[in-house]
Amino acid sequence: MPAQQSPQNERQQLRRELQQRRLALSELDLERAGQQVSEHLLSLPQVQQATTIGGYFSVKNELATGPALASLLAQQKQLALPVLHPFCKGHLLFLSYDNNTRFVPNRYQIPEPELNCQHIVPLAQLQVLLVPLVGFDAKGNRMGMGGGFYDRTLSGWQQGRYPNLLPIGLAHNVQQAEHIPTEGWDVPLPMIITPYKIWHFSD
C-alpha cells in the first residue's frame, strides 16, 4: 500500500495544484473575473452600508482587486490595506489608502502603504475585510499562502471581538477544491465571492 501523506504534505501539494490552476488563467480571464467579482461585491448591502473597508492589492494571478478598490474609492469609502507588522512577526496592520498613498515593497515584494502610525486603521473600525486566498471548499474553509497572516488577523473576529466585521474571501472559480484540509488555527470564512457565485456559509 502507498504511504499515507501527512496532513502538512497534503496541504502543500493541494496548495501547489491550486496555484497552478490560477497561474494557467489568461489575461482576459483575469480581467473578466476581476470585473465580475467587483460587481457582485458592490451589490452586497453590507458593502453598500459600510463606511470603512479593508482590501488588498492582488499579485500573481490572485483575483484582481483593482476594479473593486477603484469603485469603492469613487463611492467615498474609507479603504485600508495590509502592511506587515514591523514588530509582531506574522501579523498585519491596516493603513488607510487613497489615490495619494505612497507605496513601498515589503519583503515579499508586495506593494504596501508606507508605514505611518497616524494612518493605522484598527480592525475594530472595519465593517468589511476582503481576504485573499489560494483555495476554498464548499464549507468556507480557506487555504492561504501558508504564512498564517489572515488567520491571525481573523482570530479575534472568530472569537467574537469584532461583531460588526464581515470577512469576504475573493477567488477565481478554479480555486474551489473538493476539500481543504484544516488545522486548529484555520479560520473559515462566512462569505466567498467568485465570478460565478456569492457563497454564503453558516456554522
From TrEMBL:
It catalyses: (6S)-5-formyl-5,6,7,8-tetrahydrofolate + ATP = (6R)-5,10-methenyltetrahydrofolate + ADP + phosphate. It is an enzyme of class 6 (ligase). Substrate binds at residue 62. It comes from the Bacteria. Its cofactor is Mg(2+). ATP binds at residues 11-15, 142-150. Signal peptide: none annotated. Pfam families: 5-FTHF_cyc-lig. Belongs to the 5-formyltetrahydrofolate cyclo-ligase family. This is 5-formyltetrahydrofolate cyclo-ligase. It comes from Pseudidiomarina planktonica.
